[in-house]
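Lecture notes, structural biology module. Today: joint structure prediction for complexes of two components.
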Amino acid sequence: MIRIALYSLLLSALLLARGVCAGDAPTSAGEFAAGGDHPLRSILVLPPLNLTKDSDATYTCLSTVSRPLAERGYYVFPVAEIDQYLKANGMPTAVDMRQIPLDKVVEIIGADAVLFLEVRNYDTSAVTLSGQLVDARSAAVLWTNLARVEAEPASPIDEHDPHNLWDFLGELAVDIAIGAVEGALTDKTHELCGQASQRLFSEGREALPYGPYHPKHVG
Amino acid sequence: MNALAAVGATLLLAGCTTERSLYEWGSYQDTIRYSSSSPDNADVEQQVERLEQDLQAARAANHRLPPGWHAHLGCLYSQLGDRDAAAVELQKEEAEFPESTAFVDHLLTNLAKP
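The predicted structure, tokenised, for the full assembly:
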């Protein structure tokens, strides 16, 4: 009797395991059926469209996208060189780059798909990214997702301990004295961007299906 | 019974273990961040140095360098005027990732122009 109970416990634990693990979304190659004769191997990432007031958003976020996307199993074109190439060919801004004709993407860059990103929030409290993956040959939308990351609401001031306020003010004075505050804020936003990129491709039901370089890819 | 519980716990945990990274990322993404802000030669040299350190780390760990890495290093060499080193890196990108061929061929053609 005890043994049966244990077996059923084990079984439910195993069933739960898939749901419990973030980032282990059940995906299948079938979701990319739109690829047809050209299985999706390579992705051109365009510099994100900036919908915020902070001019740093586009390039800070662009620098965080290659890793989570390549770790998903795709070839990701070198984002800095693509950016330079497009600028040199009459597309000076992220807005212009989104107008690139898909036949040129296939012909000149050789990409199977284009990733269009938008930065919707960008500050030290939250970063929101949205993404749309488009088949470069058929123009079909293969995948879309949105990821929002909020900063931990941890404050350096502990309300219950007045001594910490003095520590905080002391540190703040030092930070201002060495001009470190702005740098720290930039790093914080950069970190949130990285987390949002990671989440965009890898978490939940809308995670991007695994690409051919990933061991879990279903070919 | 304890053994059975242990097996169950192990299986449960196995489902959640973090997967090993496919590539050695090192400072690649950091160097991208700086290259968008029109760097001078000293910055480019420093970036090349950091990427060369990543190369050593990748070799030591028998780990692959990520997509775009060799192309990026090649273009940094090109900015420093070292065409030979640039061509070597661009060809490595093609060899490692054939998906890059069309774009990298284009970069190689540009490199060969006087």
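Point to remember: Chain A touches chain B through 46 residues (CB under 8 Å).
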